[in-house]
Amino acid sequence: MAAVAGSYIIVHPDHLEELIHHYEKYGVPDEMIALLESSMHMERAHIGIFTELGVMYAKYKPEKLMEHIRNYF
After folding, report:
1. Does residue 52 contact residue 36 with C-beta atoms inside 8 Å?
2. Which one of 34, 36, 48, 65 is CB 3.0 to 4.6 Å from 53, fit for a cystine?
3. Cα separations (Å) of 7 from 28, 32, 69?
4. Is the four-CA dihedral 38, 41, 43, 45 of positive or negative sign?
5. What is the model's pTM?
6. pLDDT by residue (tens digit) across 4-19?
7. Cα separation of 44 and 61, whole Å?
8. Extents of the domains making up the chain
9. 39 and 45 in contact (C-beta within 8 Å)?
10. DSSP of 49-64, one letter per residue?
């Protein structure tokens, strides 16, 4: 349910950072990463999603960061 609700919120750049903060606060950054990854392919995706996914990779999955940078520089 959170992923469905998050997919509607994530397309609004003003709410993206707050949403990420909530996922980090409750200790589920992997869920946030999955939400960002699935939202990148939406037609309403904005550049902030790509940037924030890179930040999340740097914090929690550094092994995936270089691949992300190569694909979406």
Report:
1. yes
2. 36
3. 16, 10, 23
4. positive
5. 0.87
6. 888 888 888 889 999 9
7. 25
8. 2-71
9. yes
10. HHHHHHHHHHHH-GGG
